[in-house]
Structure formats: C-alpha cells, structure tokens
Amino acid sequence: MTMILSVVAVAALGLALGWLLGLASQWLGATTDPVVERIAEALPGSQCGQCGFAGCAQAAAAVAAGDAPVTLCPPGGRAVAEKLAQILGATFDPGNLPDRGPLLARVRTDACIGCSRCIKSCPTDAILGATKQLHVVLEEACIGCGACAEVCPTGGIDLEGIPVTLRNWRWHKPGVGHA
Amino acid sequence: MKIFRFRGGIHPEGNKDPTACHPIARLPLPQRLYIPLQQHIGEPAAPEVEVGDHVLKGQRLARHQGSVSAPVHAPTSGRVIAIGDHMAPHPSGLPVQTITLEPDGEERWIETEPAVDPFALTRAEVSARVRDAGIVGLGGAAFPAAVKLDAGNRHPIDTLILNGGECEPYLTCDDRLMREGAGYVVEGVRLIANGLGAKRTVIAIEDNKPEALEAMRAAAAAHPGIHVLRVPSRYPMGSEKQLVTTVTGREIPAGKLSAEIGVSVHNVGTALAVCRAVRFGKPLVSRVVTVGGGAIRNPRNVVVPIGTPAGDLIDFCGGFTEPPTRVLMGGPMMGQVLPGLEAPVVKGTSGIIALTAAEAHAASERACLHCGRCVDVCPVGLVPLELAARVRAGRIDDAAELGMGDCLSCGCCAYVCPAHLPLAHLFNYAKGEIAARREAQRKAEETRKLAEARRLRLAAEAAAKAARRPARPAETVETES
Lengths: 179, 481
Hints:
Number of helices of chain A: 6
GO biological process, one term (chain B): electron transport chain
Structural class of chain A: mainly alpha
Number of strands of chain A: 4
Binding site for [4Fe-4S] cluster 2 (chain B): 378, 407, 410, 413
Order of helices and strands of chain A: HHHHEHEEHE
Membrane topology (chain B): Peripheral membrane protein
Helix content of chain A: 25-40%
Strand content of chain A: 5-15%
Oligomer: heterodimer
EC number (chain B): 7.-.-.-
Helix content of chain B: 25-40%
Subcellular location (chain B): Cell inner membrane
Number of domains of chain B: 2
CATH architecture of the largest domain in chain B: 3-Layer(aba) Sandwich
Mean pLDDT of chain A: 84
CATH class of the domain at 34-96 in chain A: Mainly Alpha
CATH class of the largest domain in chain B: Alpha Beta
C-alpha cells in the first residue's frame, strides 16, 4: 500500500511539475537565443558585410553557433573580439587577429570623378559629396569597412591606418617592447 | 589652522638644495624658438600668423579654439620662419604643429592693454584677461586657467588654495618664485580669489621651504583674508586631491572636480602669471624652469622664453658633467622622459632634470613579494599589487573595477617596491588602454546610431516610392475618363 502511494505521489508530482514547466516555456520562453542577442549588441551594427555575412544579425547567429570565430569583425577590432569571447566564455587569442588596427577610408582627390557610388555604399553615411563633385570621407563617422573602396570605379579610395598623434598615443605595456 | 592628514604618501629625498640656493637666472635669447600650438589640455590653438611674418613680443600667434583651449603668444619679437611639425615635449617624441620663431634680438613688446586697477574689474573681465593671456596651470597639468575661474560660476567656491607644495624632489621653481616675487604672487592669488568669489584663501607651503614661507607671510600680512599655511613635507602633498584634504579635511569624490566640493586649487606660478596678465596686460610668454639633477654642471632656476629647446637651457647651465641616464621634464616622480634635447620648454614645463645612473636607481625587476608596502603608501587607497597582477594578465576591465581610474600616477608604489616592479608604467598603460576602450565603445555606439539612421532613411525613401507608384495609374485613369 505504502509503495503504491509513494509511486502515485511521485508520479503526480512529476506530472504537475512537467505541466508547469511546459506552461512556463510557452509563456516565458525566449523567442530568440539570448546569446545571439548579446552578441548582436556587441557588434558594431553597421551591416558592412566585411565578415562575409549579410549583416550583423547573421554574423551574431554564426558566432553563437560556433560557425565563425570571435575575431570575425574587422571594424570592431580587438575590443569587440574580446567582448565576444567573454560572452561565449571562450578563450581569445589576440595573435589570430591581424594587427592592423582600425582603418579610415580616404578619397584621393585626383582620382575621384564624382560618381557618388561610394556614398550609396557607405553603411554609416560617412561620405559627403554630390554628383560630379569631389567626395570626402568624414573621419568621425568612418568605420573603415572598405565597402566604398570596392565599388569605386577608379580605385580612388584608399584605406589607411589612423595616424598616431599626441591625442591617441598610449603607453605600451612594460616588457612587451615599444608600440 | 587645523591641518588634516591624507592617506599614504612617501618621503623621498628632496635634492632641492643645489637649485634652491641660487637666485633665478635669465636665459639669453636662444637662436630659435619652437612654440607648439598644443601646450595645454584641450583643443590646440589655431595659427593666426604666416611664414615670413614679423611679430612683436606678446603678439598672439594662435588663438584658442573651443571652450577648453588657450592661445599662444610670441615670446619675443622676430620672424616666423616655419609653421609645421616639430618634436613635442612628450614621451612619445611625436611631432606636433609648431610655430618656429627666429628672434630679432630687439625684444620689442606689442602694445599691451593699458594697466588698470585690477580690483575694479568684474569677474568676467578678470576671466577674459586670463584667457586672452593664454594662462594655463603652470604646476604641470596645463589646464586652461580661465576655465577653472569660470567654474566658480557653476559651483560656489568657498576656499581657494594656492599650491605652494612643490613636493616633487629636485624642483624649486615655485620656491624661488615665492621668495623673489611674493608680492606679485599674493596679488595674483587675490585676483583669482576675486574672480572665483572665494571667501577664504589659503596659501599652502611645505615646511621644507622656510624662506618661501617667511616671504609669503610678510607679503600676505596686510590681507586678513589670506592664510599662509605651513603643511608637512610629504609626497604627493602638491597633488590637488591630497592638498585639498590636508587643508580642508574634505575628500574629493572619485571622478569629481575639486570645484564640486567648493574648492579651487591654483599653482604659485599661475598666480604670478595672472597678476602680470590682469594688472599689466602681459600674456604668458615665459616661465621659471628648474634645471637640475646630478648630471647638470650648474643646476639653477632660469626664466625661459616659451619654446626654448631643452638643449639650449642645459647648455646655459654648463651642460652635462656626465652622460645622463635619463632626462626628464618635470620632477623625477611624475615627470615624463624628454624625447630629445630639441624638444622645447612649454607652459607646463616645471623642470628639466638630468639624472645620473646613481640617481636613476635602475634595478632589474623581480617577482612581487606581496609585502603590501605599495598598499600602505597609495594616497588614494588602491591595492597596487592586485591591480598590477590584473593589468599584466590583460584583465584591464577587472583592473578598472578595482579603481584603476582613481590612480594619480604619483609613483609612490613604484618608489617603495622592493621588487622594482614597473608599477607606475603598468598603470599608465592600463589607463591608456581604458581610454582606448572607452573611445572604441563610443565609436561603436555612434556607428550603431548612424547605421540605424541610414536604415530608417532608406526605409522612408522606399515607402515614399511605394506610395507614389499606385498613384500614377490612378491619375492616368482619371485623365482618360
């Protein structure tokens, strides 16, 4: 008798809790993967496509699924890679990242024909100009994604490293050699 | 007056006697002056002269840009021979926009604003004169002085402290200034007090400068609102936060300015420059520099035109007795390595110190002993050994959480470390890294906003197009019928 009672009690308890869990998953369940969301938040969100994915959301999904490395985002650089590694709990080896630092696009004044294709391609609206007028890149808004350089018919846009000045110079790490 | 004690601190050897005993000498005009357009915190000045122009002493060469900035003036009369890159007096040795002036030797002053009764001026007029004279904090930080005066409009200032601490070893320029120009310094500090609306003024001087204390007491005797306060010699007494605590007993909260707790701190040299600017209309074109250290033949204090190459100054003081191990701008605790002898003296240069091998105490690093001495001496109560371990391991965010941002870079921890860990260097690196990350974060947020704005714009354009399309056939139907 006691055996039957305990079997029934445990079974009832299991069913009740299972039912509750089922309800909870319907009402409170996450529609999207929270990890993907956090990764998407950490990415620049400019949809520049340099990582090879259509946009930042797709890239975030791929990183979360382990199909892409945390170092996939060139404009984000080291800071984003480190953040992604932190979200995923993965170790991050900065050695894998090409050490070129952030880049800026620059329109060569002698090559620009004012076709305005780069203006349309820029994911952050960082290029100013009008048809048959010289175009110019706003350094503050440029993320160095290179989308403009790809569409330029005269190859007149260069990607250059940001020059080191007194304002952005930083102390190197002791014992690592001069930066 | 009651004196309060700040936490930690050290007693480094003063080494002030070799320069403190000589009167301030005057440097003969150098062959060339290199005047950087960025000598202050904030936006660089914008040049107003062109190559080939002849300028008079005190003429403005570049005007201030933006709210935090300072103009620069010609330190002597002569011809502008170049406007371009020259080595910055900065440890990186990077080039900075610099106006090169060839003195004509005549020292002809431009017509300056007429001398006035400075105490008849309004607060705004005092502040404007200080700004137009290009005065920045001469203690080393080089923060535009007028901006600090204007802070009095936003926060009520009850106490003005004149910083005569000069706690850095070797440096004696403020000491000599107080001894030789006490009257001007006191007038300057009264003008600053007027400009700020401060109720009381405290001139704080470390007790290792008895002559300066005496001179300042005599000069301030006629003004009952000014207290000359003898404070104990303990590094970093001359640091703003520590001095405020010593004088008022109040602590400046992390990340806040002294003005927010009703205190404003100015350097002795700044007060003298304010007196010259407001009473006589003279801009800041020279400063007193301590040339010292064991490798200098005749160490002394010198009045130097802004823009003088460090090498000229060292030659004037007899050159080197032996090749220096390290040449510093500022004192040995917080000073920066001079990148080369062609780097010029700027407004914030308090000293050029050439250390011999024996003075530089170069020792090879060993493993941390966890002795905790760095914790005892840290004036802001950080745990340097813990911070250092995290910074070493690349855990910059963890270091920031432990209070890395509150570090003064005073170097007390590195000074006492028996294992000779490069603590100050590690922390400078970490602070730079934190700043770089903050900048990257800011840029990422901007990028997100821009991308979102673009998405909305494209969506709006597409919607407008879609709205136009069905309208057209409808129109054609109407015209046909």
